[in-house]
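Task card 7
Instruction: Convert sequence to structure tokens.
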Amino acid sequence: MAVKDDDTILRRVLLSEDGAMIHRLEIAYPTSAAAAFQPVVARMTKSFRVDPAIPEKAAGDADAAAPPPTQSSMPSSPAWQRIDSIALGLQIPNYRGTAGVSAEVPAHWVRSDMPEPNVISFAGPEATGENEVYVVFRADQRRSGATLASEAKIIKTRLAEGADNYRLLSERSTQIAKRPAILLAMQFSGSDSPALQREDVAIVDAGAVIYFVHFGTTQARYAANSHVFPHIMETLGLTP
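Output:
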């Protein structure tokens, strides 16, 4: 295990066929989110093994000789869907410029109705109430004097004042879509929702527009969905 920049990297190497075949497992995750990733990493590491009953070279030769899969054996849909806020009608009130955000979200997630014209939201279709898993994209025209730090402070203050058991898990500056950004990770609960919640937030400075991406679910469901927010950040596109 090693630490590089803001990431923790774990590598495992196994040999088979008297050392002729090398099998490598490499897992990288944000060091700041180690507590959430470690149970998943532990399960993956434990399951990483080579079955000595299967000759690797022979299996590879068999795969090469096998006919291509038929259409019926291929996945019926991709794991992710690309969403485009401009096509979905996102608009910032009283803003004459162009603002838009695109990203990949899970293919089975559905769009939620939102009253604000500058907000686009998607949620897992099986999630209801306290079990909800969601991502919210918001575009705001930059207020006079606004900075990433001041916007982060507003979010943290509002959540701390409006929820019980608030805890800031991490906060760091980075770049997202080649623009300055701040990433927040927070835990909280409330009197109307006693289950412990987890929310990850990205605040991205795009000049005249500041973008916000909120990903949230219960802490109990976070590990199973922890890959979603990093994938959204990797595939995020912004206008301008």
